[in-house]
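Project channel, design review

CF: Before we commit to the Postia placenta MAD-698-R-SB12 constructs, I'd like one complete example in the thread so the newer folks can see what an input/output pair looks like. Taking tripeptidyl-peptidase II.
RD: sounds good, go ahead.
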Amino acid sequence: MFLFPVGLVLSALLTTASCTPASTGLHVLGRRDSPPSGFTFVGAASPDSVLNLRIALTQSDPAALEEALYDVSTPSSSNYKQYLSKEDVSAFVAPSPEAVSAVNAWLQENDITAKTLTPAGDWVEVQIPVSKANEIFNADYSVFKHESTGKQTIRTLSYSIPEELTDHVAIVHPTTTFVFPTYKASLPAFRKVSSRAANTGVIDTASSCADTITPACLQSLYNLPSTPATQTSNTLGVSGFSDQYANQADLATFLETYRTDMSSDTTFTVETLDGGSDPQDGSDAGDEANLDTQYTVGLATDVPVVFISVGENTNDGDLDGFLDIINYLLAQDAPPQVLTTSYGSSESDVPIAMAENLCNAYAQLGARGVSILFASGDGGVSGPQDSLFCWDFVPTFPSGCPYLTSVGATTGISPETAADFSSGGFSNYWGVPSYQQSAVSGYLSYLGDTYSGRYNASGRGYPDVSAQGENFNIVLDQDVESVSGTSCASPTFASVIALLNDELIAAGKSPLGFLNPWLYSTAASSLNDVTSGDNPGCFSDGFSATTGWDPVTGLGTPDYTSLRTAAGL
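CF: and here is what came back for tripeptidyl-peptidase II:
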C-alpha cells in the first residue's frame, strides 16, 4: 500500500475546483494533472502579482539548423570547422513573418507590449499581472510550495492560447514547468581534509591519487600539459546558478597549494545576468562554484576563464537561468569556445517543447564553434540524484540533448572504473543521433533483454565521455574539503578541450566546436576505455561499463597526447 502526501492530493482537488472550463476557440498548450512530487498547493496567486512570461515563437527551420551543425562538426565533411556566424544561425530559428505578425496582433489586442529576448526573435517577454495572465491564457495561476526548501513559486496546471496561434507559439514560460530549484548535477560529499589549506601540502603521488584528486593527479593521469596557454581569444566559460559564488581568495590558496608553478594571482573574470553577482566574502563561497573555477583555472593553465553568474531576477526557478544564459551567449559576437555546466534535472520535469527549444539553442552555439559540456548527474539510472522512488530508469536533462557533450564520472586510477553515481542511460525525448548509431547499437547488443521496458532503447545515449569524479580537493572559505560528483568531471574534461583549442588557435586552426561527431569517429580511439563498474538505481544494478561506449562512462576518459593527434596537432 502506498501513501501519497496529503498536500499533493489536496492540491489537485483545489486546483481542479478553481479551474474554469476551456473557452471555445482556445488550444490547450500545456497541462498537468497535479504538481510534481515535492510541491504542494498553497492557494490562489494574488491577482496583482506581476509575472515575467516568456513566449517562444515557433522556429522556422530547426531541421536545417541540425544539418548545418553536423556539417561543420563532422570531420569527414568538406565544411568541417567552417563555423557559422550569429546571423547565420539566427536565420534557422527566426520565426516566420506570419508568426511574428499573428503574435504581435494578439498581444496588441490585449494591450500588452513584448520585449524581444534573442537575436533571432524566437523568444519574447511580457510583464503582466496574474489577473491578466489568467484571462488571456485561460489559466489558474496559483502559489505552490517547494517542500525541501520552503520556497514558493507561482505556476498554473493548465494554459491555452487562441487556436489561430497554434502553429506560431511553441511554449509559454513559466506555466506548467516546476523545475525549481534546478538540482546541481553534483551533490558533493564533503570530507574535511585539514583545518587550513596552507597546512595540506601538495598531494601528487600515485598512491595519494588513489584516495585524493588534485590538479597534479589529473595532469599525470590524463597527460595534461602544465605549460601556459598563449591565446587570449580562447575562453573557457563556467556556468553559475543557485546563488553559488566563486571566491578569488580561495582560488589563490588553491593555486598556492596545488599549482605552485602558476602565479597565485591567476584568476577568473566575472559576467553577470538576471541580477547575478559574485560576492567575495568567504562565507559566500560556494562548493560548486569553487570546484568549477578552481579546476578549470588549475588545469587549463592560463586559459582565460569566465565565471557567468546567473541570478534569479526574472522568475523563481533555474530553468529561467538555463534559458537566459544560453540566450545571453547567443547574443555575444564572441562567446566562450567552451562552456561547462554542472547543473541539471530529470528530463521529465521539463516539458518537451521547452527541452527542444533549449536543445536547439545549444545547436546554435555549437554551429558557431562552441563546445558545450554538461555533467550527466549523480543518481545512476535514477536521474540527477539518487533520491527517487522509481522503477523505470530516469533520464537527466539536458544530457539527452544530442547537441551537447555529456560527461560521466570515474573513480580509481589503476585502472579507472565507473563511479557508481555516474548518471547515464537513454533519452525519452530524443532519438539516437547519427554520430552515435554504431556505438549505441553495439551496447544494446551487449545488453540484450536486460532491463527491457525500463528504458527507451530508441533514445539518445549518454554520457558521451567521462573523467575522474571522486574525492576532489577544493578550497572552501580557506579550508580544504573533498567533494565528489559528475560536476568534478565536466570542468575537468572542459579544461582538456580548452587546452586543445589553445594549441589549435596558436597553429592557425579553428577550435573543436561541437565535439560529439569528432569524439565518436576520429577521437574514439584516443580515449581511455573504462570497462568496469555500473550505475545502480531504481532498484537495479544499473547499466554496466564495458568495452567501447556505455551509458555509464561513455567513450571513456581523456588522453591528452592521443587527443592532440586526433585534433590534427
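RD: helpful, thanks. The chain has a mean pLDDT of 89.
CF: The longest strand covers residues 50-57.
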